[in-house]
Design brief:
There is one protein chain. This protein is an alpha+beta fold and 457 residues long. The protein folds into three domains: 93-178, Nuclear Transport Factor 2, Chain: A; 181-290 and 426-457, Nuclear Transport Factor 2, Chain: A (Roll), CATH 3.10.450.350; 292-422, Distorted Sandwich (Glucose Permease (Domain IIA)), CATH 2.70.70.10. 24% of the residues lie in helices and 33% in strands. The strands form four sheets. Strands 12, 15, 16, 17, 18, 19, 20, 21, 22 and 23 form a ten-stranded antiparallel sheet that branches. Strands 6-7-8-9-10-11 form a six-stranded antiparallel sheet, sandwiched between helices. Mean pLDDT is 78; it is low at 16-29 and 453-457.
Length: 457
């Protein structure tokens, strides 16, 4: 039915079209140009029938329709799924840090940091396993890292020489000691002495404690009060151990040059830990000397003083060097061990005989090496004990005496010990050390001057 309707429509459309063409043809009064009539009668030629090509086609006998691969629907693409666990979102952390002040305890700081009582007890127990908490001093710092609800993650205690003890909270509480990786830095400075060596060093920004080292080394050679008129130039080269910008421990002198009158006094300290230093006058070896305690502070001089323990005025028969307990004590000159033991207020003592007239005494020691025996020969710089506070002492220090014919004399001014300390020295090697020290001093002083000039510009 639909086909018949469609055909009738086509016939009707053809009749109408033909009628319209005829109508417009009648209306047209202008004759059709021959060229247009010829173009209108043009018809395309019919294409030729294709010629058949006889091309033999042979298929292998084993080719069967069922052997041809089938073409089924393509499989849907599958998205690769990686089995990765979701990363846990770390909660925000809070960091609290403060130095310990005088009179404060570790517990009070941890409480201020917001730690609960059980956590404070656990931290104290963990830190105490690695460090004696009785040694805490003002300036030690505590750092606490915790979550927003106050649960600790890490607690760090910074102690001496850049060492940190860290308590880590996880499935189990663990403790680790983090030691710094120090760097040795060499520095140089120059000072003009007007009133005292101590004041000159302090004004020049050089560690004033070096005045003690110079007094020990030159006390038996130079009378500072009489020979120095003021205006003398002192040049120093020293070494500092640093971790970043922080200084670790105490600085050590490496070289000193002091002009007094027409004489040049120079001292070269070794870097091999022997403690033996060589003193030169005008470029020639004078003697070799070993300080009893390296880097100590001169806390009391020879002469009458108010006794720190008894409070009355008494004669102080030696000099005291304040230092940390356990600091090595070294012999100042070669000799023979004449006594090891206890002497009343002196506490534990070691005495060294330097010939028939001179003897040195080292008192308030905390310990003596196991191998040290009476009658044993020792060289300058040998360790014969450790700084302590035995006997009548208000704190760790070395009481150092020099006795001549049994009578105490000022260790920093008497020259008889210097005579006892004289020994054979390889002059060639000693002069080579002096030349190297002078060159290093000049190099570092030039560097300091250049840096200061640049900063000013």
């Amino acid at each position: 039915m639909r086909l018949r309707t469609f055909a009738a429509g086509v016939a009707l459309a053809g009749t109408v079209s033909g009628t319209a063409i005829a109508f417009f043809d009648v209306l047209s009064k202008e004759p059709v140009p021959p060229e247009l009539a010829q173009a209108g009668s043009w018809m395309p030629q019919r294409p030729e029938a294709p010629r058949s090509l006889d091309i033999p086609l042979s298929l292998p006998a084993t080719a069967w329709v069922e052997d041809t691969p089938g073409f089924g629907p393509l499989p849907l693409l599958q998205a690769a799924v990686v089995d990765r666990p979701m990363q846990a979102i770390e909660p925000p952390l809070l960091t609290w840090s403060r130095d310990i002040s005088s009179g404060e305890t570790l517990g009070s700081l941890l409480s201020e940091a917001g730690l609960a009582g059980a956590d404070r007890a656990e931290v104290a127990l963990a830190l105490g396993a690695e460090y004696d908490l009785r040694r805490l001093r003002p300036g030690n710092s505590v750092t606490v890292v915790s979550t927003m609800d106050g649960s600790p993650r890490t607690v760090s205690l910074a102690v001496e020489d850049g060492v940190r003890i860290e308590v880590l909270f996880g499935e189990q509480v663990s403790t680790q000691v983090v030691a710094p990786d120090p760097e040795m830095v060499t520095l140089a400075g120059e000072a003009v002495i007007d009133t005292s060596i101590f004041a000159a060093l302090d004004n020049a920004g050089i560690p004033a404690r070096f005045a003690v080292d110079l007094a020990q080394m030159l006390g038996g050679t130079v009378d500072f009060r009489r020979e120095m008129a003021g205006g003398e130039t002192l040049r120093l080269l020293w070494r500092e151990t640093r971790v970043g910008d922080d200084k670790i421990g105490q600085p050590d002198l490496a070289f000193a040059a002091l002009e007094i009158g027409d004489s040049l006094y120079e001292i070269v300290w070794p870097d091999d830990g022997s403690g033996q230093a060589t003193i030169y006058v005008d470029g020639e070896v004078l003697r070799v000397f070993a300080q009893p305690v390296e880097g100590a502070r001169l806390s009391s001089v020879f002469g009458r003083r108010t006794h720190p323990a008894y409070g009355n005025v008494r004669m102080h028969t030696g000099v005291d060097f304040a230092a940390t307990s356990g600091t090595p004590v070294r012999t100042t000159a070669p000799g023979r061990v004449s006594f090891i033991g206890w002497r009343g207020g002196y506490g534990r003592v070691v005495e060294i005989s330097h010939g028939s007239e001179t003897m040195t005494r080292y008192a308030h020691l905390s310990a003596v090496p196991e191998g040290l025996t009476q009658g044993q020969l020792v060289a300058a710089g040998d360790v014969i004990g450790r700084v302590g506070a035995t006997g009548t002492a208000t704190g760790p220090n070395l009481h150092y005496e020099v006795l001549v014919d049994g009578r105490p004399t000022d260790p920093l001014s008497d020259d008889r010990l210097a005579e006892a300390a004289e020994n054979e020295v390889d002059d060639t090697a000693a002069l080579l050390r002096l030349t190297a020290a002078r060159a290093l001093l000049t190099e570092n002083l030039d560097s300091e001057i250049a840096q200061t000039t640049t900063e000013r510009l």
